[in-house]
Amino acid sequence: MNESTFDLEAAAGTIHTWLGEADRVLITAGAGLSAAAVYDYGDEDRFRELFPALHHLGLRSRYLVGVPLPPELWWGYWAVHIDDIRFSPDPNPLYQRLSSLVGGKDHWVMTSNVDALFARGGFDPDRIFTPQGDYGRYQCTTPCTATTWNTRPLVAQLLAAYDPATGTVTGPLPSCPNCGGEVEINVRIGPEFVDDPYLPAGRRLQDWLGSTADTRLLILEFGAGFNTPGVIRWPGEHLTRQIPHARLVRVNPTHPETPTDLAGRTLSVPVGADRLLNALTVPHPAPDPTVAS
């Protein structure tokens, strides 16, 4: 299946039907959903606009994890990046449309995204599981403690000392409030990641899923590819296999494939989330049952 021959209108009709038949909805999402919401980490033009000094050094995207940079430059990047993607004041329209789509259905969210766009888009924060962390928290790099701290005042402090021409921050660099050592953003990069803030939501989600065995669960998966398939993509397939009445909709323009052993209970949608959600906002005819695969 490819995007040029895909019948988007028929797929939207199928999704409307499956939503109507579902008792519960689990929304799962990877980086592709935020990219569709104009937060594309691979967008070179936006990177050049936000980080001119880094672009001049030859860097071309926000995928900077693992790139060695001087601490002053590294924290300059993080301050601008987090301020842009995590603390922008307005809710994102794409996430608001997704929230309206599920409406009053009993639903949960599980996402590898760390930008809090779901909570800012109208979803209940108590029903969002973010196992990869949150740009809104930072931690001791060691870590000396399982405590994490609010990133907002840290970002404000860094931006006040930020020079766009050089991409650096001046003055003291961030340090651990507990031990005085180095700190990092509380996202899952290595074994030092502190996951304590996210475990309660994970347990509540597990309890919710544990009571879905006899219900009709619809999993709506957006933009989850193969960078970290064990976080979103494979768990969704596993749940569909384990729950007899579960269905899986996979929305991904580059990796829309679904397992052959789940034929009849999956729908592969090879377009971006923005196109699909636009299509879902207009009336649709009865779905073609041959669309599901």
Task: Compose a concise summary of this entry.
The protein contains eleven helices and eleven strands. The protein is of the alpha/beta class and 293 residues long.
* Major pleated sheet: 6 strands, parallel
Radius of gyration: 20 Å
Number of helices: 11
What is the total domain count?
Answer: 2
- The global form is globular
What is the first-to-last residue Cα distance? 10 Å
Helix content: 25-40%
Strand content: 15-25%
Q: For the largest sheet, list the strands in their spatial order.
A: 3-2-1-9-10-11
CATH topology title of the largest domain: Rossmann fold
What's the total number of strands? 11
CATH superfamily of the largest domain: TPP-binding domain
Helix and strand sequence: HEHHHHHEHEEEHEEEHEHEEH
Mean pLDDT: 93
Structural class: alpha/beta
Based on the structure given, which CATH architecture of the largest domain is correct? 3-Layer(aba) Sandwich
Question: What would you say this structure looks like, in words?
Answer:
With 293 residues, this protein is α/β, with parallel strands linked by helices. The chain has 2 domains: 160 residues, 3-Layer(aba) Sandwich (Rossmann fold); 98 residues, no CATH class. Helix content is 34%, strand content 16%. The protein has 11 helices and 11 strands. Strands 3-2-1-9-10-11 form a 6-stranded parallel sheet, with helices on both faces. The chain has a 3-stranded antiparallel sheet with strand order 5-4-8. Strand 4 and strand 5 form a beta hairpin. Helix 5 packs across helix 8. The protein is globular and about 60 Å long. The protein starts with 7 loop residues before the first helix and ends in a 14-residue tail after the last helix.
